Please model this.
Amino acid sequence: MGGVKVDGRVERGEQTRRQILRRAAEIASVEGLEGLSIGRLATELGVSKSGVFAHFGSKEELQLATVRAAAKIFVDEVVTPAGGATGLARLERLLDGWLAYSQRRTFPGGCFFYSVQAEFDARPGRVRDSIAEFDRSWAELVRTAAADVPGLVGDPAQLAFEVVAYLDLANARSVLHGDTDAYARARTAVRRALDRATRQA
Amino acid sequence: MGGVKVDGRVERGEQTRRQILRRAAEIASVEGLEGLSIGRLATELGVSKSGVFAHFGSKEELQLATVRAAAKIFVDEVVTPAGGATGLARLERLLDGWLAYSQRRTFPGGCFFYSVQAEFDARPGRVRDSIAEFDRSWAELVRTAAADVPGLVGDPAQLAFEVVAYLDLANARSVLHGDTDAYARARTAVRRALDRATRQA
DNA sequence: AAGTTGTACGAACGATCGTACAATTAGTTT
DNA sequence: AAACTAATTGTACGATCGTTCGTACAACTT
Model:
């Protein structure tokens, strides 16, 4: 698939860009996308401030690129691994995968999107729109996965709402309080919700 | 109760301070406690920057005072109104009260503590400790209210975890997407969870 | 070999940040 | 009326913010 370009300059630039975005996503999950500063990013990576800036052209573009990079990581770690399964197994893999992704601290500040969503949810702009769009697609993914469980009892959208709520609170409690029980509570809640929704009627 | 001091200067100062903190809490629920700047606060309130600064002595103290002021508002709007009830009615009033407090946008950015918790959960410092302590006491309040429901089926801590998760997600969805259904979903989820926990065993 | 392209750099800009301190205004006490 | 006190102001500081610009150099094209 990859193009046949062998331009070492571009390749080097893309590698630098990837390094910037990986670090940016880590920082943003802790300090927020607004707390992420170009100067600090440059210092931590050992490159020049203008070098970082040149890759994006504005801070807003850096933030948008960071969201896209984090989205890719999220998809790789949570969505793709559940790709092989169907029905109830697929829904379970999505939810278990999310909890594992949060718990293993793929991003040091917990789930990247939980952090930045709370930061941007109330202000206008392209960054907020980008985050909202990703969150919407994740919610819809869980909803359709629930709807695809054969013989499901009750409203799949309601079930999806409830189980996603457990995931988010587990992430929040764990990061804020170091509460190691939070993930266990969420797993219990998810399992019981799925049991109720798949029991014989 | 009130002291007999009639010093107009002190009184005026306290009033200014209250105005600052009310506005600060509003701003922080949208832009975050770090996005809140002393200069902007002064401009919006029509007072001098040094006037705002003198009331607190440092930005961290301003942030801490803002958290305390928001906590007082939260208690007045959610905790106190549920004070008269006991048992299941008390738990219901707490949860309904929270949803109403979020939905009526007491703070323009939704629940103040949801916003600032996600902002500070991963960084050290006194502000984070203050937020964590308040969140802990709220979680414990719901937990004890659940434990005080007579004849409860199941673990009250697990029940408290699940219902608080519904509240938080309703707030998040509503603020991020303008999703008007989110509160209805949360109310449905809360009601069914309480029904299950209080059914005849 | 000469010319072009793309990345990264250093220096500087205007603006804003939090903070410091002396001067001023308004209200209280003697 | 004078002395005192507390709230507020104006001015100024160093640091950092995002951004702009001209330049250096390596890699590719002709």
